Amino acid sequence: MTYLHIDNLTKRFGNLTAVQDVSFSVDEGEFVTVVGPSGCGKTTTLRMIAGLEEPTSGTIRIDGSDITSLPAYRRDIGVVFQDYALFPHKTVFENIAFGLKMRGEDEQTQREAVDEMLEIIDLEGYEDTYPHECSGGEQQRVAVARALAFDPDLVLMDEPLSNLDKKLRQSMRTELKRIQAETGVTTIYVTHNQTEALSMGDDIAVLNDGQLQQFDDPKRVYREPEAPFVADFLGQSSRVDGVLETPSRVDLGDGNSVAISERDGFTPGDEVAVFLRNELVSIATEQPSTGNVFEGIVTELDYQGGEVNYFVDVPSLDISVQVSTVVSQTDSFLEAGMDVWMQIDPSDVIYTRIDDQSRTEVSPAEAAVEQ
Ligand SMILES: Nc1ncnc2c1ncn2[C@@H]1O[C@H](COP(=O)(O)OP(=O)(O)OP(=O)(O)O)[C@@H](O)[C@H]1O
Ligand SMILES: [Mg+2]
């Protein structure tokens, strides 16, 4: 059942449209990730939901009631920001109890709620500790507890893990998902990290340039992108444009074509962008007998321990394809200059219609590499 409903939300700052006609619905208990490159309007969207920014137009409803013009302090929404923003001179107890105190709850209620939260975030015994005595990960858990302690209708998190190192961030992802599952609170989580968005979201909202590109579950967003931007942003791939020749074949020009799996909503004649995902292309020195096969020349290899990435020029398509391969300790490597065969199954070829907006090349991927 729809719990949070956002309808045509728009925010302009002078001439700049930060968020344009964004609409989506979130079910109760759902964990939604909002992803997109820097400046695409993620924080602005979140701030409007929290009541910290007034929308230029559009509506926000929670559980059927319109909260668009309700001031922030009258919305029951917990917020966690990138920099935690714990009160430095308050103890962990006082930080977590803050929302309850503001709502006039008595000490007994505060104590019970804080105890419960400390157990959930696994920081029992930290009541009297000050933020500066906690590690980054601990502070972040306290910030999450503070946002949850007053039993909010909704929790909003804006890049809450970006100040943590990679390893801690990974364990905190699991931790946050566990906490959310345990409390069942509806959560919207902003990140510019694609892996985080895909691994954490029940649904993902992909934003670009203030506009919602797609709102769908992670598998759909990854496998059936609705815009070239989505295909390019989520995952690493090489793009070739063409025209749908039959429902299961794309003409790439110069006598080249690629077999694909049929998808609803496409008709021959459609202009499409074809994406060859790095991890779905395989590479061989012998010509494969099935699937889409292209000849290439290895130009470079990038050794990363358990993985090797090959950069391969495919002259017939005028592209360079990157192939990620998992290698064992005894595998021998291909070398630069070698002639190779690239293969991809029709069902692994990702494609999307090219609309007017995405006719020019988009390259947001650099903006969003894993930190
Ligand atoms: N208060 C403001 N006044 C003017 N422009 C603003 C204001 N807040 C945001 N913007 C602009 O609105 C656009 C969207 O900003 P927003 O902070 O929502 O992006 P974001 O997706 O959160 O980016 P990041 O990933 O860098 O945090 C940007 O172009 C930004 O410069
Ligand atoms: Mg932001």
TrEMBL record:
GO terms for cellular component: ATP-binding cassette (ABC) transporter complex. GO terms for molecular function: ABC-type tungstate transporter activity; ATP binding; ATP hydrolysis activity. SMART domains: AAA. Its EC number is 7.3.2.6. The keyword Metal-binding does not apply. It is a peripheral membrane protein. It is found in: Cell membrane. Keywords: ATP-binding, Molybdenum, Nucleotide-binding, Transport. It comes from the Archaea. Its main location: membrane. InterPro entries: AAA+_ATPase, ABC_SmlMolc_Importer, ABC_transporter-like_ATP-bd, ABC_transporter-like_CS, Mo/tungstate-bd_C_term_dom, P-loop_NTPase, Transp-assoc_OB_typ2. Pfam families: ABC_tran (PF00005), TOBE_2 (PF08402). It catalyses: tungstate(in) + ATP + H2O = tungstate(out) + ADP + phosphate + H(+). Residues 4-234 form the ABC transporter domain. Gene3D superfamilies: P-loop containing nucleotide triphosphate hydrolases (3.40.50.300). The complex is composed of two ATP-binding proteins (WtpC), two transmembrane proteins (WtpB) and a solute-binding protein (WtpA). Part of the ABC transporter complex WtpABC involved in molybdate/tungstate import. Responsible for energy coupling to the transport system. Belongs to the ABC transporter superfamily. Sulfate/tungstate importer (TC 3.A.1.6) family. This is Molybdate/tungstate import ATP-binding protein WtpC. The lineage of its organism: Archaea, Methanobacteriati, Methanobacteriota, Stenosarchaea group, Halobacteria.
